[in-house]
Design goal:
By secondary structure, the protein is α/β, with parallel strands linked by helices. It folds into 3 domains: 2-184, HUPs (Rossmann fold); 215-273, Adenine nucleotide alpha hydrolases-like domains (SH3 type barrels); 279-380, Translation factors (Elongation Factor Tu (Ef-tu), domain 3). Helices cover 22% and strands 31% of the residues. It contains 7 helices and 17 strands. It has helices spanning 11-22, 51-64, 74-90, 97-116, 159-162, 175-184, 206-211, and strands at 2-6, 26-33, 68-72, 121-123, 128-132, 138-142, 165-166, 219-222, 228-232, 259-264, 269-273, 279-290, 304-309, 317-329, 332-346, 353-358, 361-372. The chain has a 6-stranded antiparallel β-barrel. It has a 5-stranded parallel beta sheet with strand order 3-2-1-4-7, sandwiched between helices. Helix 1 runs parallel beside helix 2 (51-64). The record marks 126, 352 as: Interaction with tRNA. Keywords: ATP-binding, Cytoplasm, Disulfide bond, Nucleotide-binding, RNA-binding, Transferase, tRNA processing, tRNA-binding. Belongs to the MnmA/TRMU family. One of its GO terms (molecular function) is tRNA-uridine 2-sulfurtransferase activity.
């Protein structure tokens, strides 16, 4: 099989490529240049896609004896990931750029180009597993090492994309084993720190980064009844669940801290309230996709049992989900995923991604359009 190995410059993608070579595939390495002005060096574990990462990817390919290329996807990355991130925050939502990158860059743009060039599959260093059912249909499952499992950020993959996806680290019991293998193979990235945070905000200051790109204006902070309790410098700089930095002028009647419950960019308001109201019971999702063939219940109108996960490293919780057809105006309609949680989740924000599971299998995902506590009606805020 002809395989294109996506080489980030990290240890996981290097070992994944090495295992693809060992499996007898015809492997070519490619590093994605996602910035027109990449930094020269990484800052510890912050950031990625630097010149240093590109060189590390090249060294790994040299050790493995496979061809190496750099593909410029910077314009597509800016449009589909960075600009989307800014637009989502401007709309008062909290996006997950890693989901968008996997959806639109690594398993859309990259895979499309790979197939056009005659490759059979794209290989990455993600910790996830693809399994074929009795009929040969592919399903996405959690990796053997649940602590490193990355099936959540791959929940956007479609049935067609799974046909061309290769995850050689699927059965690896621990990250330590991957590093030991890299050391044995003579790969210089064996002890390179994992990258984290948002790759295009390497200093981790998301608020400061957004303030340079979204027009901020002072507005009101109100409590859950609509009473003004303070001022803010710009609603877009806040996230649901935030406690610090509110600088409220009026304390809560019970003296307890208040948290951000909702952001209303059109009104330029931030709604705050007690911690208890961060616990949400019902999620509504849009932009739905299915990882593999969808469950039959999904289109029958029946509710189905599942587990739902709303963050990459969060524990999944039990839920009942169903599809609802919602009129969106001008005679058009769209599907909405309604998820009722068996136990409430804390501090879920619109814009986050919810991924549905059954056992280890990823069923699909949706972007959260609303997350509400059944104990509080947001309409009470005027």
């Amino acid at each position: 099989m002809k395989v294109l190995a996506a080489m980030s410059g990290g240890v996981d993608s290097a070992v994944a490529a090495a295992r693809a070579v060992d499996a007898g595939h015809d492997v070519v390495g490619v590093h994605l240049a996602l910035s027109r002005m990449p930094g020269t060096l990484r800052t510890g574990s912050r950031g990625c896609c630097t010149i240093e990462d590109s060189r590390d990817a090249w060294r790994a390919c040299d050790v493995l004896g496979i061809p190496y290329y750099v593909w410029d996807f910077s314009e597509r990355f800016k449009e589909d990931v960075v600009d989307d991130f800014i637009a989502e925050y401007a709309a008062g939502r909290t996006p997950n750029p890693c989901m968008r990158c996997n959806e639109r860059i690594k398993f859309a743009a990259l895979l499309e180009k790979a197939i056009a060039l005659g490759f059979d599959a794209v290989c990455t260093g993600h910790y996830a597993k693809v399994i074929e059912d009795a009929d040969g249909n592919r399903e996405l499952h959690r990796a053997a090492d649940w602590a490193k499992d990355q099936s959540y950020v791959l929940g956007v993959l479609t049935h067609e994309q799974l046909k061309h996806s290769l995850f050689p680290l699927a059965e690896t019991p621990s990250k330590a084993e991957v590093r030991e293998e890299a050391e044995r193979r003579g790969l210089s990235v064996a002890n390179k720190p994992d990258s984290h945070d948002i790759c295009f905000i390497p200093d981790g200051d998301t608020r400061g980064w957004l303030e340079e790109r979204i027009e901020m204006s002072e507005g009101e902070i109100v409590d859950q009844s609509g009473t003004s309790v303070g001022k803010h410098p710009g609603a877009h700089a806040f996230t649901v669940g935030q406690r610090k930095g509110l600088k409220l002028g009026r304390p809560a009647p019970d003296g307890k801290p208040r948290f951000v419950l909702e952001i209303r960019p059109k009104e330029n308001k931030v709604v705050v309230g007690p911690e208890a109201l961060l616990a949400v019971d019902r999620l509504r999702g849009i932009k739905i996709s299915w990882a593999g063939l969808p469950l039959a219940e999904a289109f029958s109108g029946e509710a189905f049992e599942c587990m739902v996960q709303v963050r990459a490293h969060a524990d999944p919780v039990a839920a009942r989900a169903s599809l609802a057809r919602v009129e969106s105006g001008a005679g058009s309609a769209a599907d909405e995923l309604v998820v009722d949680l068996v136990e409430p989740l804390r501090g879920v924000a619109p814009g986050q991604t919810m991924v549905l599971y059954r056992g280890t299998r990823v069923l699909g995902q949706a972007t959260i359009d609303s997350a509400r506590s059944l104990d509080w009606d947001p309409a009470a805020v005027s």
